[in-house]
Amino acid sequence: MSIWTETLVALLVLVGASFTLLGSIGLARLPDFFMRLHGPTKTTTLGVGAMVVASAIYFSVTDPGISLHEIAATLFLFITAPVSAHLLCKAALHIAHKPDNESKSKD
Amino acid sequence: MRRFFPHPALSIAIFLLWMALNNASSLAHAVLAMILAIGLPLLTRRFWPEHPPTVKLLPAIRLFGIVIYDILLASIDVAKLVLGPTKRIKPAFIEVPLDMQDPFVGTLLASIVSLTPGTVSIDIDRTRWVLQVHALNVDDREATIRAIKARYEQPLKEIFSC
Amino acid sequence: MLNAVIQIAFAMIALAMVLSLYRMVRGPDATDRILALDTLYINTIALLVLLGINTSNSAYFESALLIAIMGFVGTVALSKYLLRGNIIE
Description:
The structure holds 3 protein chains of 3 kinds. By secondary structure, chain A is an all-alpha fold. Chain A has helices at residues 3-29, 33-36, 38-62, 69-96. Chain A has one domain. Chain B folds into 2 domains: 8-47, no CATH class; 57-160, no CATH class.
């Protein structure tokens, strides 16, 4: 593997890991459920996407033939992230609107 | 032709997906992908009652590029907010009135809004055609609404001509 | 160089998993826990992809793909349960 591809893979892995970590920091730090939702749906998805692309480049270079199945995984992640976020939002609103929870103010 | 390929786009997608999953390794997989691409739409045609919408390719590619770029921006945006003081973040629920009445395009818009900066879509009200979004940090509601409409809804309307 | 970077990335992903676990234990709502579980799934995918690069073995990737699918179905089923009280209607 040449120095350029190695640098590219290393960079993508580092960026991916940083974004994954930032997503989880958001999940742990932010004060409200709807705010917490932003971290995992955007940042973590992009982080894992970057790492998967790094893996695609790495195996395309080291193994014979090109490595394409990572592309399918990236696509899958980016399609499913908004869907699960949407469903979780709906569930959260549903719970918040239950009568016995009404006294807890949700701002 | 219509009989064997009720949904040409779906067939192409299945073929490409199968080839990607097998790293496009051999001719045998291409044959199997062909069989799946013809067989699966025929088997599941009852789940897809409507005809697929026609897509304008050039605006679609342009929108795809914009969305990829915005996903990058979104992550950097969230990262900045997450690492700074959390007290200064001003979240808000915003309602974006939609100009189109198509469930599929609406879903696509909601997904794009979820992945792009500052907003996560919560629900589409199908009686009023309003997209409810939660924004992480807003200073100006009107500007957010205008941005969503101009940047994503307008191209989507152009692509699906609705 | 790649090796050192991968070791650092391992540490970062592990920290991310700890933070997600913290949110899962802490709650306070059921939706928070599901969101944390979903994030944990995605973190696991990252970990497996990293492990694949580290050992130059692409077989890890197949399990990452399986976890991605299972995680998505699990999140959808759990949210659906909260929303309606049953999963299959």
